[in-house]
């Protein structure tokens, strides 16, 4: 079973590229978690996914945010949001049961400089996310997939001196993500690639993707009981290294596991 996460930075703008990517992979992705849809539910391209064998569960939002899970396998027990109005007015979380797994799709807030309202919101959102996991999840056969907007370690950025204490690398942000992992999760890419500088996001400016000046802020975290089932965990840079159609600034993360 292959599961991927991909921040598309507008599903409307990226649907052609996304379909090209899936076709190129011969539709080997069984479950695809998407973030930053930037459309309301009824404008999501359900038909395009249905034509290639995917059913879609969507928690959309106009202009900003939005998450979806698209699956070639049956989905059930779909949950949209944390059930907390202060956070669910931004569409950042959806989960579903698929083939005995709990698959969660996450789009964490970007945040801002320390002391700003956006920084405080990001910290409070992570608190709400942690509480949701502790209160609502069984912490077994669970995958947390998405854009966490945090580069967990210095190895996850192209230059730790230049990017020190900037958005996504501040100690408070790293600790917020680490507390999620400490609940009983494993960073699948880092587990299988412990010493490699691997990135999932590159700025649009300055030719960053061609210089590989990026950050790893997209993750698939698995519960401890799935650790032995993970066969591969990789980053596919093909969608990001396109000139046309214009790519997202992110690229997909894909794992393969035996379930």
Explain the layout of strands and helices.
Blueprint: E1 2-7, H1 11-24, E2 31-35, H2 46-51, E3 55-59, E4 67-71, E5 75-80, H3 85-88, E6 93-98, E7 101-107, H4 117-136, E8 142-147, H5 171-181, E9 185-187, H6 188-192, E10 201-202, H7 208-211, E11 214-215, E12 218-223, E13 230-235, E14 253-257
Parallel strand pairs: 1-2, 7-8
Antiparallel strand pairs: 1-14, 2-4, 3-4, 5-6, 6-7, 8-12, 9-12, 10-11, 13-14
Give a verbal description of the structure:
By secondary structure, the chain is α+β, with helices and mostly antiparallel strands. The chain has helices at 11-24, 46-51, 85-88, 117-136, 171-181, 188-192, 208-211, and strands at 2-7, 31-35, 55-59, 67-71, 75-80, 93-98, 101-107, 142-147, 185-187, 201-202, 214-215, 218-223, 230-235, 253-257. The chain has one domain (2-257): Endonuclease/exonuclease/phosphatase (Deoxyribonuclease I, Chain A, 4-Layer Sandwich). It has 7 helices and 14 strands. Helix 4 (117-136) packs parallel to helix 5 (171-181). The N and C termini lie close together (7 Å).
Counting DSSP H or I runs of 4 or more residues, the number of helices is: 7
Portion of residues in beta strands equals: 25-35%
Distance between the termini: 7 Å
Mean pLDDT: 98
CATH architecture assignment? 4-Layer Sandwich
* Overall form: globular
Task: Give a quick set of tags describing it.
six-stranded mixed beta sheet; 259 residues; alpha+beta; 7 helices; Deoxyribonuclease I, Chain A; globular
In short:
The protein has helices spanning 11-24, 46-51, 85-88, 117-136, 171-181, 188-192, 208-211, and strands spanning 2-7, 31-35, 55-59, 67-71, 75-80, 93-98, 101-107, 142-147, 185-187, 201-202, 214-215, 218-223, 230-235, 253-257. With 259 residues, the chain is α+β, with helices and mostly antiparallel strands.
């Amino acid at each position: 079973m292959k599961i991927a996460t991909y921040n598309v930075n507008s599903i409307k703008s990226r649907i052609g590229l996304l379909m090209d990517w899936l076709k190129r992979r011969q539709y080997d992705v069984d479950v695809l978690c998407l973030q930053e849809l930037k459309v309301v539910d009824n404008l999501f391209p359900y038909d395009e996914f249905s034509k290639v064998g995917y059913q879609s569960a969507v928690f959309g939002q106009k202009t900003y945010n939005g998450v979806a899970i698209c699956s070639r396998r049956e989905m059930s027990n779909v949950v949209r949001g944390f059930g907390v109005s202060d956070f669910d007015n931004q569409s950042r979380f959806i989960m579903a049961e698929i083939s005995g797994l709990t698959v969660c799709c996450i789009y964490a807030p970007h945040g801002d400089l320390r002391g700003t309202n956006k920084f405080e919101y990001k910290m409070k959102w992570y608190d709400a996310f942690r509480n949701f996991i502790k209160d609502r999840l069984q912490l077994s056969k669970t995958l947390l997939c998405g854009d966490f907007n945090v580069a967990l370690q210095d190895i996850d950025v192209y230059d730790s001196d230049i990017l020190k204490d900037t958005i996504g690398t501040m100690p408070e942000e790293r600790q917020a993500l680490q507390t999620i992992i400490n609940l009983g999760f494993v960073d699948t890419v880092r587990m299988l690639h412990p010493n490699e500088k691997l990135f999932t996001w590159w700025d649009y400016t300055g030719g960053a993707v061609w210089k590989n000046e990026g950050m790893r802020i997209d993750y698939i975290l698995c519960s401890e009981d799935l650790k032995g089932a993970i066969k591969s965990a990789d980053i596919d840079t093909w969608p990001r290294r396109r000139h046309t159609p214009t790519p997202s600034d992110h690229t997909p993360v894909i794992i393969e596991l035996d379930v």
